[in-house]
Amino acid sequence: GWKCIGRIQSTQQFEKISGGGILKLQVNRIFIKDLAFGEETKVENHTLFINKERIVNELKKEPGVKDIDIDFAKPGEKTRIIPVKDVIEPRVKIKGAKGFAGVTTDVAQLGEGIVNVLYGAAVVTIGDIVGFQEGVIDMWGEGAKWTPFSKTYNIVVDIKVVEGLHPHEHEEVVRLVGLKASELIGEAGRNAKIDETVEYGIGDNDEETKKYPNLPKVVYVEMLISQGLLHDGYIYGTCTRQTLPTLIHPNEELDGAVISGNCVAACDKITTYQHQNNACILDLYNRHGKDINFVGVVLTPELTTLAGKFRCCDYTAKLCKLLGADGVIVSEEGYGNPDSDLVMICTRLEKQGIKTVLVTDECSGWDGMSQPLTDTSKESVAVISTGNVSHVVHLEKADKVLGDSEAIANLAGGWDGAYNSESGTLDCELNAVIGATSEIGYHNATVELY
Question: What number of other Cβ atoms are within 10 A of residue 54's Cβ?
Fold first, then answer.
């Protein structure tokens, strides 16, 4: 879904082409192909060097942190990472609002300006388990086939928190440390050589409709889990449990306005990294002006109460109608009771004459024969499956474990005895593998048609 439009040589040149009402985000990629510790945090010949002592000392200043360690996990190495909290792409903002606005910096408008990205690198947070829904990443073998983060060069930040923290406080500490680590490491890209530049930008509804009067208007609805501890997303630092469905410019999400505070089941949690590189948004951008008119993103909370579900589904359909949508793509986060939100949104849109496509995974049992969704509707006729969360995988013995393989017993998709301490092997459902069935399409699963 990425579209390279060529290198923009300077901030001044960028300012000249960013006129009008179009919100434009220039993403400068610095390709990372190796990791090493060094005296400076910098990029040299595509290797990201990290001054471990300085980064650790900075992160230990965060409230609630007892200790920090940093290690690496590289593609192809027989390394296991468990239990994973989040994955974040390290970046530095060169022009425009900085950081994760509303969280690590003051609230400001994201989605425009220039950002340098350490492309191919990722910050992965681990540490003492917060709850039962965290995950695993294998960098080689069978496990690597299922997670996109077996292909990234991972800076693994192991976080130990002070004793006595409430689980909600524990989750917040590791979430904020991960974001801060990505910013500290991202600074290595400030003056690094840029390998590739991509640009994203659309104007307001009227402006884009005038340019493309004959193209169908398409809205992307992204459902965000909003159900408490390890089940929350954040928009500009606001927990989605406290929001109505929200219309944003797609650039805002690509620029860090949406972050993960959840683990749901690890297979379909949308990590912060995946929000920063939302595959649905990138694909829609690639089609914009060609065969569709991409007019915006609606972020929709997935609540647990029936009244909350009705409110959010009604509101989502209303926003899409007001935008003049001809078609809507709806992606789910998680499974189970959010399946009802998914099909309720679909029903409301289809009854208004808006063509709707749903993106969801399935909970079909170990044999794949169980009912895949907890709810359905006759209007749900266009559905894309991203895989069966219950599929069982056998993970080989690791040469190196970052974290604790025994944690699998407490993860969704794991069980007592899932880790064989004698053989070092691990069996689990895809539920436990980070990003294995991501419902925004950012994963490695494919479908074979018969």
Answer: 13
DSSP state of 13: H
What does the block give as tokens for 31? 């390709």
Residue 364: how many CB atoms within 10 A of its CB? 18
Select which of 4, 239, 263, 312 is catalytic. 263
The verdict on pTM exceeding 0.85 is yes
Task: Report the alpha-carbon distance of residue 441 to residue 431 in Å, rounded.
Answer: 16
Nearby residues of 426 by Cβ (< 8 Å), 6 or more positions away: 80, 136, 394, 395, 405, 408, 418, 419, 420
Q: Which amino acid is at 59?
A: L
What is the rounded CA–CA span in Å between residue 22 and residue 315?
26
Using alpha carbons, select from 75, 157, 79, 80 the residue that is nearest to residue 120. 75
Q: Which residues in the chain come in under a pLDDT of 70?
A: 1-21, 132, 230, 444-450
Q: What is the dihedral of CA 100, 106, 111, 115, to 10 degrees?
A: -60
Residue 12 burial class via C-beta count within 10 angstroms: exposed 0-12, middle 13-18, buried 19 and up: exposed
State how far the Cα of 401 lies from the Cα of 384, in Å rounded to an integer. Answer: 35
Nearest to 408 by CA among 434, 382, 427, 435: 427
Q: Please tell me the predicted confidence (pLDDT) of residue 50.
A: 98
Determine the Cα–Cα distance for residues 388 and 412; give it in Å rounded to an integer: 14
pLDDT, residue 18, reads 41
**DSSP one-letter string for 342-374:** HHHHHHHHHHTT-EEEEEEEE---TTS-S-S-S
Distances (CA, A) of 159 to 173, 178, 239: 9, 9, 23
Q: What is the pLDDT of residue 445?
A: 64
pLDDT of residue 447: 55
Tell me what pLDDT residue 216 has. Answer: 98
Beta-bridged to residue 429, according to DSSP, are 392
C-alpha 341/C-alpha 424 separation (Å) is 40
- Contact by Cβ (8 Å): 220, 233: no
Q: What is the structure's pLDDT at 132?
A: 66
What does the pLDDT read at residue 13? 40
Check if 263 is active-site.
Answer: yes
What is the rounded distance in angstroms from the CA atom of residue 54 to the CA atom of residue 147? 30
